[in-house]
Structure formats: structure tokens, C-alpha cells
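Molybdopterin molybdenumtransferase: C-alpha cells wanted.
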Amino acid sequence: MSELIPVHEAEQRIRSSLPSFGTEQVPIDRAAGRVLRQAVRAECDQPPFDRVMMDGIAIALGDGSRRTFTVRGRQLAGMHGQSLDDPSGCIEVTTGAVLPAGCDCVVPVEQCRRDGDRVELVAGWQPQPRQFIHPRGSDCRQGDELLAPGMRLRAPELAVLAANGLDRVEVARMPAVAIVATGDELGEVDQQPLAEGQIRRSNDRALAAALHGRGFDDVLLTRVPDDLAATTQTLASLLASRQVLVLSGGVSVGQRDFVPAALRELGVTQVLHRIAQRPGKPMWFGIGPQRQIVFALPGNPVSALVCAVRYLLPALEQAVGLPGVGGEPVVLAASANTSPTLTCFIPVRVHHDEAGRTLAVPVPAPTSGDFSGLPRTDGVVELPPSGNPAAAGTVAPLYRW
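Answer:
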């Protein structure tokens, strides 16, 4: 039996083995949620002109003593820039307009009293130089890098792309994933009634949901029985058409655990098998002959989800160019049991205290097959091997479902 691999070494082996899925160009309207794989630089200064920030009047301030002005024109947003040549005059302006040449101050409409073309400043209000003017280039200068490869394209990033004229953008190509449930005991979700000894397939749906939640949408679900020939045939077909295989079950050392043997026969190179952790010890990871990524997760539901959030999802995010961020630090709100030899992953429920700390309340599952309580949790915390329980107040990394 192979020696158990420490969690940190398993993570390192996976991360150092990962291929890239390449890139593709997509229209901006299909780029939301994708991972940017190009640098984006400012097309021009932003704002590209001194921009008016308030509706009101633009004036030449001078020494600030003048209190009345005569309207000499209007400068609306989107109009060509106008000029003010007479310091006794003003130009009516709207938010977003070009600041008229010759003006160096904007007076908000709320601070004006207007009678026809005559405008008087409200008593007691004193304008200041460059007031309510958004200076040219104050956001960015032409050529500044605004977006870097590896950024997830959310609403702010899409706004930057559009504002800089990028109607197409280079993003990471998302892999085609197959999730393979293994086991003679698996029945279909809608099967009525289940035969004696059967359970309904659930791991594949849970894993698919986890993938969809991170932006991996091309996911195929299938199943194989506990049979070496059938397993090998199905996996051969999937390796030819999919970049990522995720298997659930059949990966331990039982007499009907055929997944490792089938993968060896198909030329998938084993990178690791069996990790020093609870739950999820039997996990297997390898790289296919055409650089396919293969995760073979344990069949117990809690084990499968733990391995997914700890290894599978971070690995795929790295492969599409996202930076590895690790677990989110949280503070244990109560003590939690540990193991002297294994890293333990404990389901927790998360909330915030009055000081703003993120607290994690342990909600341990009785066994790795007991998953009905997981909907009342937010993820798992990782606790290193220890001869003593982890005390309340311990800081630990959280991996969210």
C-alpha cells in the first residue's frame, strides 16, 4: 500500500503538474465571468478632457470676488467645447460636459440664483479654483495598464474593456469536463423504486454544481458500473473528447475499485494516490497522455466534496490563469477534534462577530457518508495533524462549498 502524502505536498504535486488550456478570442458581450489572458492598456487619457462634475455654470474665477455673471452660452454633455472670453460672463454646463476653454471653476446650480441671463451666487458661498472639475487624465493616462492577465472579468472589468474600445478580448479557454460516477449501487435520481441495496446518484450533481459555481459550465455527467472493461472503455472515450475527467468512487484499494487500473491501462500517469487527510484519503490524481487532467475522488459524498473544494477547483482555476489564493482565514468559534497523523477537514457554519471577525462554528459530519447536514454549512476548515483538539480562537483556512 502506498505511503500517505501530506496535504501540502499533494497540493504542490497537483499545481506543478497542471497544463494550460490555451486561450481564445470572444466578443465582449460573452466575456463576463471569463479569465482575462491579455494586458489591457488605456486607449487615451481618462477622462479625455477636463470634465464638468455638476450641473451649473462654468466661470473664470479670477480673484474670487465677482458674485454676478451673465450667461454667454450652453455647454451640454457630448457637445464640442466652447470658450469663454469675458470674465464677467459664464457658460451654463451639465454634468459630463467638456469644461469650456477659459473657465477654471464650476458653480453648482444649487449655489446660483438666476434671473434671465443674469446669475448671482448664493450669499455666503465661495467658489474655489478647479472646483467640481474632473481633470483630464486623473483616472489614467494613455498607455497605462488597466487590466492584467489572470483577472476574472466582472462588472468593473467589463466597463473598462468597453470604455477602451475592446469589442473582443483574449480569455482563457474553458475546459470540457466529464464527471463519472462509478458503482453498481447507483440508481438514477428519478428511479422509482430503488432496488434493494441501491442509492441515488448525488455526487456527480454536487460536483457539477461546484464547477458551475466557479465558471466551468461545459460539464458532462455519466456513470460506469464496477467493471474493469466497462470502466476502461468509458474512460478511453472521455479522454479523447474531454480535457478534464473527474471520477467519483472506485478509487480506493477494494477488490472492485477498478479506476486506478483502468487509468494506468490508458496511459494516465499517476501523480499521487492517497493523501494523509480525513475525509478524502483515497484521492487519486494524474495527467493523461494528451495532458488531460484526471481527478479520481472518493465515493463518499463528504470526501468527494472536500477533495473538490481543496484540490479540484483551485487546480482548474490555476489552469485557466487565476492566481492561487488558498483558503480564507477564519477563527474557530469552538474547539474541534484533530488527528495526530492526518489533516482533518471539518464542516463549519460561518458568521461574523461584533468586531467583524469571521467565525467558524464546527458542524462535524458523523462519517464521510453523512452529507444531509452539509446544507447548513458554508465549507470546511483545514486543521493540521495534532495530538490535541484545535482550541477556540485558532485561525484556520476555510474552503467554501
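The mean pLDDT is 95. The first helix runs from residue 7 to 17.

Cheers.
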